[in-house]
Design a protein that fits this description.
single chain; alpha/beta; five-stranded mixed sheet; 10 helices; binds zinc ion
């Protein structure tokens, strides 16, 4: 039997998975991400965790085809990362070479959102499709584009950064990226809260939404209960996201959009607000597209990372 490892490197934890080469997860576990000292311990910690698991399971290096790793920052096709602020990494270096030299097996690296997209295409909400766009609606808006079964990485490792499509050129407030009017400012969990607070300023009817404490979950719970203010917020969210995805379709023409991240826990009701605006703006040849919820949750990253080395 041959094995591989899928590693999802996040700002606070590293998720690791041991897989067989068919993509069955045999074991998964987590370690802490030690981002202090410029993140110098992170890769050695990961290497130690992987080697420890091999020892525990009696797996020889010769039986490991490789390890894949998703990293929270832009990663080029040849494995270079420029910067990963969450990890304390500020220098350009080759993640693949460094981890490979510590592990003694081949390593493939990718941007975390792109890697999660690959996982969802392989074993999740996009299974069976070759042209998949994955959108994560979490604290920010992440994206990953898979065309012909391959991640669209681009020249700078920044392909698929859907969250930074400028969808409102009139916006004055700055996005986390430093620019203004990005999709992330309206369709992330924090963006939805912002839309809700704006709505509450001039909403005169009855609503359960509270100015101070409102969350994205509150908004969609209230939508399900028929709350008028929440429905207006959801409509606004849906316009920004639906219009943005119609733009994405003109560029890469996917057969399916897979929506994940914390906000997607609201469920299929999201599509009631996204599909209308999407259809309103989509080029006619892009109208026939599916929308699905992500299925792998927090495991999308380890599955996608394993797939990186298996493909
Ligand atoms: Zn931005």
């Amino acid at each position: 039997m041959k094995y591989c490892f899928g590693i999802d490197l996040g700002g606070t934890t590293v998720k690791l998975g041991l897989f067989d080469t068919e993509g069955t997860v045999l074991d998964k576990w987590e370690i802490k991400t030690r981002s202090e000292n410029g993140g110098a311990n992170i890769l050695p910690d990961i290497a130690e965790a992987v080697k420890g698991k091999m020892e525990e399971k009696g797996i020889n290096t010769a039986d490991v085809v490789g390890a894949g790793i998703g990293v929270p920052g832009p990663v080029t096709n040849d494995g270079y990362i420029n910067k990963a602020v969450n990890l304390g990494w500020n220098e350009r270096f080759n993640v693949e070479e460094k981890l490979s030299s510590l592990l003694g097996v081949p390593v493939k690296a990718g941007n975390d959102a792109n890697v999660a997209a690959l996982g969802e295409m392989w074993k999740g909400g996009g299974a069976g499709a070759e042209n998949v766009v994955f959108v994560t609606l979490g604290t920010g808006v992440g994206g990953g584009i898979i065309i012909g079964g391959k991640i669209v990485t681009g020249s700078h490792g920044a392909g698929g950064e859907i969250g930074h499509i400028v969808i409102n050129p009139e916006e004055k407030k700055r996005c986390g990226c430093g620019k203004t009017g990005c999709l992330e400012q309206y369709a992330s969990a924090t963006g939805i809260v912002r839309l809700a607070r704006k709505k509450l300023l001039d909403f005169n009817g009855e609503t359960v939404l509270q100015m101070e404490s409102v969350t994205a979950k509150d908004v969609f719970d209230a939508v399900k209960a028929g709350d008028a203010a929440a429905i207006e917020v959801a409509e606004e969210f849906g316009r920004y996201l639906g219009y943005s995805l119609s733009i994405v379709s003109t560029l890469v023409d996917p057969s399916i959009y897979v929506i994940g991240g914390g906000v997607s826990k609201a469920g299929e009701i999201l599509f009631d607000y996204i599909k209308g605006p999407y259809m309103e703006k989509a080029f006619f040849a892009n109208e026939e597209v599916e929308f699905a919820l992500a299925e792998l949750g927090n495991d999308a990253g380890i599955y996608g990372a394993a797939k990186l080395v298996l493909q």
